[in-house]
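Section 5: illustrative case.
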């Protein structure tokens, strides 16, 4: 028998055309279609036995198709007419002609006529009247279901079977309804209490959006029943204090202390509505660990940070289906539509390296931005949520003044996410009772909207009346909830409806950051590796490749050369040193996660961490096969994003101290696209929120005649941000240095961001190599003394010292050797921050007769390291340090290779004191 799922109306036009063809010549269509239309004719006649005549039968055949189109119209367009707006017709709610019987020629059809509803899940007898009633109850009440854009038919059918039989509403018991009222009472009472106690202070209250609290409580407790054990929430500031207190059980007294300025002076700190929190709560399914991520005012930037934290927790649990850890992202309507990082984050949702098995997105839809006067000024889309359609996410628009509808769509959203492991959006349509903040006067820019808002009773007041009319609570009982909550709040204790528990995360799933707190950056750590171990690892890189795996000939030569380097037969290059660091770390139990655009191969074809079969779509990752027992090595060629991907990796690193997390910019210049993450999280997260993070950033850097856009990773910005030992800034100049640096990053009991300015041309420079003994001996040297001037007598002859970092060292070295200069020493600063003051003094003491000290950089004088480190030299006793560089420029570099070479030669000669020749 033919599958009749097409009767949902999606194919109505096709059916009409096919049916007309059938009427003209039944034999001209497929026999299965002939049988279907014959059956349809018989059904139409049986529904109306009193009717006779071919004209009546034909009319009923056409009516059946029009009913299918009507059903389809409600599924597609019902959300446009749904009563989702608590402000009435002020914003979007429109009359949709396609939802009218007249549009489909059905206005004169007897309502008692029975039709085949197709896939429409109606419980009552499918008469026209019952079908229309069920459609309107399901699709145009206080929930607007927007899901027909989804390409996967299975997902659409599931949603229809989930919502249509219940006509878009749940069945709540009296205790459940009283619980919702209790949660709304807490949400409203919290804001009113703060408004009276801390007059004029900003809190970015939740007034008008109080249904967010029962929404989150539903996710927590329904999620607990379904097996979830951790939830990570990312949200901006509106309603944040309410969520902290009424959902995450932050003691009210702690919050009051923040209002009153009682903070830990050890750190810079941050405003109260940017802070995060974590707790363990009890649910029917067991303990639940809740986390609210710290974040700044940069609106949507917390979304990918939260995703990274979720992924780290899922990886730790080996939660491959997302059954145990859920991410919740709470957005503002204007920001959701306006911030590009939202799109970037959605684009990562189903990718291998970044998927978190579905995020529940909640849009607190105030129907306004900051003080935007009209919707047309804030977005070009009809809904603020339209961007979510790019990943076929279902979107549920719900009236925030109907808390039962809010709870219902939340349940549906959670079930969808758990089943399909995909993102889902809840558009909580509400309003902002006060201004953007409590000192703002919204009537200046929104007089019409706020004349409506002022006349509205609160969500809690409406719901209390509704329950009183239904006999669920008495007027006195509803008032008693207000008094009880106010008393709890005044006592300064825990006010939320969740009961706290101390049996949250099992010990093996907890992260232990305390061992890294307050540690000095100078720690003696043995980062060496024996020659035998190096040889074994480098040999395995080739020997473990499957016999039938066809490697590119040039890549095979690289691997063969690395094996020779491991045997000490060749000097090690950069790729060898870097890969050896990863191999040794995973052998020692540290996981490695490396991501970035083209980082598997390496932008400059030096890494080859991923091998590609030359005849089949297969990959081989040698670093996953370096030992019989090793930690996980993950390498991801990321989506073409800097901001969201770096934020994701930051979030991952803040949740996982035992994983070496590295983000690599394709070119260092591209880090510009992630500047918000650097400014607001990486450089200042510890001082603002006491959040440690061991994230590593690889930024290819060096002026090599490739123009303004492929030269500079903006070193000057990082040295400017460096303070209070917030990060490490390193410019390693040889393979052994990068080996020891990466191992030091994990082996120390110390976790700070590590910013590494990596080379491009040095990846294959004949001088940028290391002998095997440099890996078996030594450590990461923050200052490297001159490589040629080694004995005491020679050092005493030196009159000029050049200090430098990075690629320019090799230009200086080659020119000095060419000129056979013996009175000039070149010292490398491999770590610019924390500045290695004592180590530099120790090296400079080898040169007692110095008359001139130069800081040489290839960047323009207004860029590069100079302005960020020149004050470091002022404390030393030796002569004044003079900068030699390119002149100040607006762009990082010239666009002409010829001009670049002339400039480079001139600054090298000036630094060496050769300009007078």
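Designed sequence:
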């Amino acid at each position: 028998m033919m599958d009749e799922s097409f009767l949902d109306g999606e194919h109505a036009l096709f059916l009409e055309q096919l049916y007309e063809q059938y009427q003209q010549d039944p034999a001209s269509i497929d026999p299965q279609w002939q049988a279907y239309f014959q059956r349809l004719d018989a059904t139409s006649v049986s529904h109306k036995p009193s009717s006779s005549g071919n004209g009546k039968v034909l009319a009923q055949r056409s009516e059946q198709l029009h009913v299918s189109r009507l059903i389809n119209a409600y599924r597609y367009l019902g959300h446009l007419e749904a009563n989702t707006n608590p402000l009435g017709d002020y914003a979007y709610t429109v009359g949709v002609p396609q939802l009218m019987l007249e549009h489909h020629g059905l206005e004169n059809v007897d309502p008692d006529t029975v039709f085949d509803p197709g896939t429409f899940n109606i419980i009552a007898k499918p008469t026209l009247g019952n079908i229309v009633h069920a459609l309107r109850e399901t699709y145009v009440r206080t929930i607007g279901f927007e899901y027909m854009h989804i390409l996967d038919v299975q997902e659409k059918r599931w949603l229809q079977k989930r919502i249509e039989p219940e006509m878009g509403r749940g069945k709540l018991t009296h205790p459940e309804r009283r619980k919702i009222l209790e949660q709304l009472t807490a949400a409203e009472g919290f804001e009113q209490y703060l408004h009276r106690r801390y007059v004029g202070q900003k809190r970015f209250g939740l007034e008008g959006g109080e249904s967010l609290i029962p929404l989150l409580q539903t996710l927590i407790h329904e999620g607990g029943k379904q097996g979830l054990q951790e939830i990570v929430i990312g949200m901006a500031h509106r309603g944040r204090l309410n969520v902290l207190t009424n959902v995450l059980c932050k003691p009210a007294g702690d919050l009051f202390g923040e209002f009153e300025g009682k903070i830990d002076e050890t750190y810079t700190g941050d405003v109260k509505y940017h802070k995060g929190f974590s707790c363990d709560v009890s649910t029917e399914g067991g303990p639940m660990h809740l986390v609210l991520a710290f974040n700044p005012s940069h609106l949507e930037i917390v979304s990918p940070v939260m995703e990274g934290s979720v992924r780290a927790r899922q990886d730790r649990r080996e939660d491959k289906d997302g059954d145990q850890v859920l991410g919740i992202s709470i957005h503002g309507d204007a920001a959701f539509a306006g911030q590009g990082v939202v799109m970037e984050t959605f684009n990562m949702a189903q990718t291998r390296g970044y998927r978190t098995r579905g995020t529940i997105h909640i849009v607190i839809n105030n129907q306004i931005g900051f003080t935007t006067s009209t919707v047309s000024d804030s977005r070009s889309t009809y809904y603020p949520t339209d961007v979510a359609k790019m990943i076929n996410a279902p979107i549920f628009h719900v009236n925030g003044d109907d808390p039962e509808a809010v709870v219902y769509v939340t349940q549906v959203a959670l079930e969808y996410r758990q089943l399909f492991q995909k993102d889902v959006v809840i558009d909580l349509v509400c309003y902002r009772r006060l201004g953007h903040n409590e000192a703002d006067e919204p009537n200046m820019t929104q007089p019409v909207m706020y004349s409506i808002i002022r006349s509205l009773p609160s969500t809690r007041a409406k719901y209390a009346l509704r329950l009183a009319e239904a006999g669920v609570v008495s007027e006195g009982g509803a008032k008693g909830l207000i008094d009880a909550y106010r008393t709890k709040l005044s006592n300064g204790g825990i006010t939320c409806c969740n009961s706290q528990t101390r049996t949250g995360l099992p010990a093996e799933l907890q992260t232990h950051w305390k061992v890294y707190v307050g540690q000095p950056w100078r720690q003696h750590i043995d980062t060496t590796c024996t020659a035998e171990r190096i040889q074994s690892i480098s040999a395995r890189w080739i020997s473990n490749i499957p016999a039938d795996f066809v490697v590119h000939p040039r890549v095979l030569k690289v691997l063969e050369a690395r094996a020779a380097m491991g045997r000490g037969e060749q000097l090690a290059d950069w790729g060898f040193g870097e890969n050896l660091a990863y191999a040794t770390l995973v052998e020692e139990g540290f996981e490695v996660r490396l991501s970035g655009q083209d980082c598997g191969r390496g932008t400059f074809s030096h890494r080859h961490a991923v091998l590609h079969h030359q005849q089949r779509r297969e990959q081989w990752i040698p670093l996953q096969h370096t030992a019989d027992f090793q930690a996980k090595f993950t390498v991801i060629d990321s989506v073409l994003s800097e901001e969201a991907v770096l934020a994701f990796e930051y979030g991952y690193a803040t949740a996982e101290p035992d994983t070496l997390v590295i983000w690599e910019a394709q070119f260092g210049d591209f880090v510009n696209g992630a500047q918000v993450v650097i400014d607001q999280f990486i450089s200042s997260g510890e001082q603002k929120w006491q959040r440690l993070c061991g994230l590593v950033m690889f930024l290819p850097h060096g002026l090599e005649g490739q123009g303004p856009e492929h030269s500079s990773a903006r070193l000057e910005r990082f040295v400017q941000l460096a303070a209070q030992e917030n990060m490490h800034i390193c410019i390693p100049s040889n393979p052994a240095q990068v080996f020891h640096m990466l191992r030091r990053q994990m082996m120390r009991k110390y976790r700070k961001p590590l910013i590494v300015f990596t080379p491009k041309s040095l990846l294959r420079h004949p001088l940028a190599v290391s002998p095997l003994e440099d890996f078996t001996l030594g450590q990461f040297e923050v200052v490297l003394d001159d490589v040629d001037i080694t004995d005491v007598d020679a050092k005493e002859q030196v009159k000029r010292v050049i200090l430098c970092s990075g690629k320019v060292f090799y230009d200086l070295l080659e020119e000095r050797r060419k000129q056979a200069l013996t009175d000039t020493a070149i010292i490398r600063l491999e770590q610019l921050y924390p500045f290695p003051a004592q180590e530099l003094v120790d090296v400079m003491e080898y040169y007692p007769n110095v008359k001139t000290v130069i800081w040489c950089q290839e960047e323009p004088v207004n860029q590069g390291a100079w302005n960020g480190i020149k004050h470091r030299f002022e404390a030393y006793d030796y002569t004044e340090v003079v900068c030699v560089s390119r002149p100040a420029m607006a762009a990082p570099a010239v666009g002409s290779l010829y001009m670049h070479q002339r400039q480079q030669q001139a600054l090298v000669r000036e630094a060496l004191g050769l300009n007078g020749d």
